[in-house]
Design a protein that fits this description.
alpha+beta; BirA Bifunctional Protein, domain 2; Rossmann fold; 5-stranded mixed beta sheet; 16 strands; 40% helix; 21% strand; elongated
Length: 424
């Protein structure tokens, strides 16, 4: 019988990989804690209408990429393709805006899109996101961008750049849309099939197309910033001033519109070197109308999401391998395994990482096992140690067994001895 294999576009994260993930996640959670963002966890499965209403029926995500199926009662369900819509749904459903006007929330978890798998892009992928509800002030935009930048810096990434744009608002965007549509109609023959379709439904999406011909047309298209109303221009200028004050800066990119329909005013992306064409590792912006459009009270909001799969690729390229906690291995002569149990318990309760070889076997085979695991110290228990109430400690750092030092300590002083040795 043929073995069952993982679904295309999805993958297992094996222990050597999850070590990177755990190291990264601890540091990212620390950034969220320092900025006062509280974690929220939403289901991976939601009603399909949630994403159609929030992301946009005409977006590629909703039209082409979602994993959607009928439930047993006939309702349409979808695996979440992004995190903001579910957080907004929870924000409304749990009346968070009525309890407190300002909320800082973050999430981390798997998302699902039926895209073409490639390096750093999977059909099950992982995001970290943050959402700030309750402020229309440009300082909120500055803060959310600062948090995104701080996340990359906290894990040791430095080779990245910030790009900014404005999406305008309901006052100025309709006029710009008319001018953009007129320009694109003049160049319609040069556009790809998808962009010709987008001309009628959402011409701003054409600016974001990665096809070479469409990119060339978009480069010469009218700029939204040139048509922005005074309020949008002032908002954008203040966001840029705040970023300059923090030493973050950022480059204006008139073509950046992001892939979701709910954005207005500020949008941004963080681009990293070393990933080729798919170089966006984080992005977001302001979505002041989304909460109200989904049935909530009018609530300004701004947020971002970071692609953790791509970030791990960068970590493996640019950052030294994360250190493992020192491993302590207990080896006992055959018949003495019961004596290892209270010792293991004592070490773990003191905060050390400690294991034994549950297959038992000879001292020699257990030492080989400790070597393969990368143990820092091996604690040896034989007849002499048990009779004398001692433990023999073997330092495994030397390359060969003949060079490895070992010494005995009384059990009562074992924790102090190990702690002192590992601090040297």
């Amino acid at each position: 019988m043929d073995p069952i294999r993982v679904i295309r576009g999805m993958r297992d994260l094996l222990p050597e990989q999850t070590r990177w993930w755990r190291w990264m996640e601890q540091r990212l959670d620390g950034v969220m804690d320092r900025y006062g963002y509280a974690e929220i966890r939403t289901p991976v499965l939601e009603h399909t209408g949630l994403f159609a209403r929030s992301i946009g029926q005409e977006t590629d995500i909703v039209a082409k990429e979602m994993y959607t199926f009928a439930d047993r009662d006939g309702s349409s369900l979808s695996l979440r393709p992004e995190g903001t819509a579910a957080v907004v749904r929870s924000f409304i459903e749990n009346n968070l805006g009525k309890k407190e006007p300002l909320h800082r929330l973050f999430y981390r978890g798997p998302m699902f899109r039926h895209e073409r798998p490639q390096k750093g892009r999977y059909r099950q992928f992982y995001q970290l996101g943050a959402e700030l509800f309750g402020s229309a002030h440009p300082s909120a935009d500055v803060e959310i961008i600062e948090v995104a930048v701080g996340c990359l810096q906290a894990i040791g990434l430095t080779d990245f750049s910030l790009e900014l744009n404005t999406q305008g608002c309901p006052v100025c965007r309709p006029g710009y849309r008319e001018q953009l549509t007129a320009y694109l109609r003049e160049h319609e023959r040069q556009l790809c099939t998808d962009c010709r379709r987008r001309l009628a439904s959402n011409p701003l999406r054409v600016l974001d197309c990665k096809q070479a011909a469409c990119t060339a047309v978009a480069e010469a298209a009218p700029h939204l910033l040139d048509h922005a109303c005074d309020d949008c221009r002032q908002q954008f200028d203040q966001v840029r001033a705040g970023l300059e004050k923090l030493g973050i800066g950022g480059r204006l990119n008139h073509r950046m519109v992001r892939g979701l329909d709910y954005y207005n005013r500020t949008t941004f992306e963080l681009l990293a070197a070393g990933l080729g064409a798919q170089n966006a590792v984080a992005g977001g912006g302001r979505y002041d109308g989304l909460v109200e459009s989904m049935g909530g009270i009018p609530t300004p909001a701004v947020g971002f999401a970071a692609g953790l799969d791509r970030i791990v690729l960068l970590l493996e390229q640019q950052v030294a391998e994360p250190e493992r906690p020192p491993l302590l291995f207990i080896a006992a002569q055959p018949g003495y395994w019961l004596e290892t149990l209270p010792l293991l318990q004592q070490l773990r309760q003191a905060g050390f990482t400690a294991v034994n070889d549950v297959r038992q076997g000879s001292f020699k085979s257990q030492l080989k096992r400790a070597d393969r695991l990368g143990a820092r110290l091996v604690l040896l228990l034989g007849q002499d140690e048990i009779e004398q109430g001692t433990v023999t400690i073997k330092d495994m750092q030397a390359p060969s067994d003949s060079e490895r030092k070992q010494w005995q300590v009384e059990r009562g002083g074992l924790l102090q001895e190990i702690g002192g040795f590992l601090e040297r």
